[in-house]
UniProtKB/TrEMBL annotation:
Positions of the BTB domain: 10-85
PROSITE patterns for the chain: BTB (PS50097)
Protein's UniProt name: BTB domain-containing protein
Domain of life: Eukaryota
A Pfam family this chain is assigned to: BTB
Organism of origin: Suillus subaureus
InterPro entries, A to Z: BTB/POZ_dom, SKP1/BTB/POZ_sf
Length: 246
């Protein structure tokens, strides 16, 4: 029971699971209904005699991941929290906000959905001047990297947008407008430089198709290649081929 999302005067308890544990949120039907027509319609249904209760109020078992549901509820009750997180370009935005965006679409929380989609549109430029401005910013970041023995502290990706997760988000949340920029950025990154593998406690040796060992250099980009579907790999390959022809 998250203390800040379990109100003594709440009129409904939402139960959801995450990592094998059940989370209970005692909230207000009026608050959820004011933000979402789906919730409003759900709570407007006539009460059944056998309806489950929890802590003296109606109980609704939610099919959603409890962590995503918690993020959604916190955004509704504490909007400043989500607004402050959306103000600046967040390198992990596509992973961090994917769950809450999908729930905001599922439950038609239109204001939150609009804010999140605007953030992703701003992150991934659709015009050349905007793209050039982003690349100029990234060039400044790359120039500031100083080789050190501690490679983990030199991951430039920690301050840059990660394209593979953005592509995954665009596919699942239906934001095709950001795909060109995300695919183009991904095309500039070596497929041998894997974001997660490089950050593991025992990173595997990186080798190319001929078995040659590849060395990661401070400032070199990496991507979460494992998030790509076969169709996305094909799209990337065709895009690279077209660029080579051009």
């Amino acid at each position: 029971r998250p203390e800040d999302l379990y109100y003594a005067d709440g009129s409904v308890v939402l139960l959801a699971a995450h990592a094998g544990k059940t989370h209970a949120f005692r909230v207000h039907k009026s608050v959820l209904g004011s933000h979402s027509k789906v919730f409003a319609d759900m709570f407007a249904l006539p009460s059944a005699a056998e309806r489950e209760t929890y802590d003296g109020v109606d109980l609704v078992r939610m099919p959603d991941d409890a962590k995503d549901l918690e993020d959604l509820l916190r955004a509704l009750y504490y909007p400043r929290t989500i607004l402050s997180m959306l103000e600046n370009r967040n390198p992990l935005a596509a992973i961090k906000f994917k769950g809450i965006l999908l729930l905001s679409q599922k439950y038609f929380v239109r204001v939150l959905q609009k804010l999140l989609r605007a953030r992703f549109h701003a992150d991934w430029p659709s015009t050349l001047p905007e793209w050039d401005k982003l690349m100029e910013h990234y060039a400044g970041l790359s120039a500031s990297v100083v080789p050190q023995h501690d490679a983990a502290s030199q991951f430039i990706d920690n301050r840059m947008l990660e394209p593979a997760s953005a592509i995954r988000l665009a596919r699942e949340a239906n934001i095709p407008e950001i795909l060109p920029a995300a695919f183009y950025m991904l095309s500039t990154i070596s497929p041998f430089m894997d974001f997660d593998a490089l950050r593991s406690s025992h990173p595997p040796p990186l080798t190319d198709s001929q078995g040659n060992v590849l060395m990661w250099q401070p400032g070199e980009r990496s991507a979460r290649w494992g998030l790509l579907t076969p169709d996305d790999w094909l799209c990337l390959a065709r895009g690279r081929h077209s660029m080579m022809d051009f």
